[in-house]
Specification:
Number of strands: 15
Order of helices and strands: EEEEHEHHEHEHHEEHEHHEHEHHHEHEE
Radius of gyration: 24 Å
Number of domains: 2
Length: about 450
């Protein structure tokens, strides 16, 4: 149970505009300032926040101070981060100034809404310096401290960093881990947690991976939205598995939408799926199965649900395929013939085009937001759902631009494993080697299968 300290009742909400381009908060510029010792998941949180906001059409960008520092010092030892190392301190301050200056420039170009300043910001003096700089340029600040004393989580994060951090590329993993622990000790000597002395700041403290969340002085709508997302995060290692349903009769006929049964090859994939998942999971950990409410996904997951007694299964209406309105049950050739203007409009802007009486990809993203929140709260999930829905979920994890996401190929009879890491999300695709039609359509095509 999370303990929520602070209140959102006193929040003031800025005027919000909603149109076909999504939610827009006028005149808002926010710097999310990460705070915390190394190996506390700051970079993972930072990239998640940027990815989440971009997925919701809110312009966001990450400014990682380590990236600026690496331009001059690509692979420093732990001694570089010792406060008694004056030259190292000077170079780290220069990197922080460069990051903040670029952030201000990005805001002043007029396209940015939320910036994330990813650094330790480990002292009160450094946090005050960031706030004063932002105040001078009319940028709100939201400090996000990840505070963790759980040794198991810290060691897992050290393992993560030593294998994925740009600071340790090509180094022996054990040597890297030892150096990184020494770096942490150097920061621990000077680290100051956010406390009552900084009660004028707007901040969120995530303690021990969100087991306790302390909120202070949240100011407006967009800050509250970021806070709500942060309250649902955890940084424990886990994976998400994605699969389309098995090949359906509608797939064979080239039709979209509907609630058709699986084909013979689709049934074969359903029977093979438990083996694919078992080989990918690799241990006996609990796994939760999510499907849509449509027949083809439920049928695809039915053997998986019975294969392991500790596999729970849930059906989500939010995971149903994109609603195709008057085009439901038609082939693309029929749509082009009966609704030529709509067919062209969808090719021109597939993300924002809404089927007559149906949905757009943007609409699907909006209804998937609760799914994303639940995914961030959960451990290991396998989702068996539909092409358009998987495109939206995949785009969230892999940071695919909106205009590209509706055109991604998500093949049938393939299990996709996504593993979020501190600096990126790893992807593994496992084909079942069971033939299926391709439902991928290029712009302008009306082919039945391609």
């Amino acid at each position: 149970m999370k303990d929520y300290c602070g209140s959102l009742d006193s929040m003031t909400t800025k005027r919000i505009m909603t149109n076909h381009m999504g939610v827009k908060v006028e005149d808002t510029r926010i710097c999310v300032v990460m705070v915390g010792l190394p190996a506390r998941g700051k970079s993972l949180i930072a990239q998640k926040v940027v990815r989440y906001l971009g997925w919701l059409s809110i312009p966001a960008k990450n400014f990682n101070v380590g990236t600026y520092r690496r331009a001059d010092t690509p692979a420093p030892s732990a001694d570089f981060f010792d406060t008694s190392n004056k030259e190292g301190e000077k170079m780290r301050q220069a990197a922080a100034r460069a990051a903040v200056a670029d952030m201000v420039k990005w805001f002043n170009e007029g396209t940015g809404t939320v910036a994330v300043l990813d650094a330790t910001n480990s002292t009160k003096a450094r946090r005050r310096w960031v706030k004063e700089w932002c105040d001078e340029h009319n940028i709100e600040t939201l400090f996000v401290e990840s505070k963790c004393d759980n040794d198991e989580i810290i060691m897992a994060n050290i393992l993560e960093v030593k294998t994925t951090s740009p600071d340790y590329i090509g180094q022996d993993p054990e040597t890297a881990a030892k150096d990184f622990r020494n770096r942490i000790r150097n920061y621990e000597r000077v680290y100051q947690t956010i406390d009552e002395d900084e009660k004028d700041l707007t901040y969120v403290k995530l303690i021990d991976v969100g087991s306790q969340v302390i909120i202070n002085n949240i100011q407006d709508y967009l800050q509250s939205r970021v806070v709500y997302y942060l309250m649902n995060l955890h940084i424990r290692p886990r994976s998400i598995w994605l699969s389309r349903h098995g090949e359906s009769q509608y797939n064979l006929d080239g039709k979209i939408g509907g609630d058709s049964q699986l084909s013979e090859r689709g049934e074969l994939y359903a029977s093979r799926l438990p083996e694919l998942v078992a080989n990918s999971v690799g241990d006996d950990r609990p796994l939760t199965i999510w499907t849509s409410t449509l027949k083809r996904t439920i049928a695809t997951a039915r053997h998986l649900a019975s294969a392991k007694t500790h596999y729970n299964k849930l059906e989500w209406k939010a995971l149903d395929e994109i609603e195709s309105g008057v085009c439901d049950g038609l082939t693309y050739a029929e749509i082009a013939e009966q609704y030529p203007e709509d067919f062209q409009a969808r090719d021109d802007d597939k993300y924002n085009y809404r089927y007559r009486g149906g949905e757009s990809y943007r609409d699907v993203v909006i209804r998937l937001e609760p799914i994303i929140m639940e995914l961030e709260r959960s451990e290991n999930i396998i989702i068996v759902t539909h092409q358009a829905v998987l495109r939206c979920i995949y785009a969230y994890y892999m940071n695919v631009p909106q205009e590209q996401s509706p055109w991604m190929e998500v093949p049938l009879h393939t299990l996709i494993k996504l593993t979020p890491r501190a600096y990126a999300t790893e992807e593994t695709r496992v084909p079942a080697m069971i033939p299926a039609v391709s439902t991928f359509r290029t712009k302008g095509s009306t082919a039945k299968h391609q």
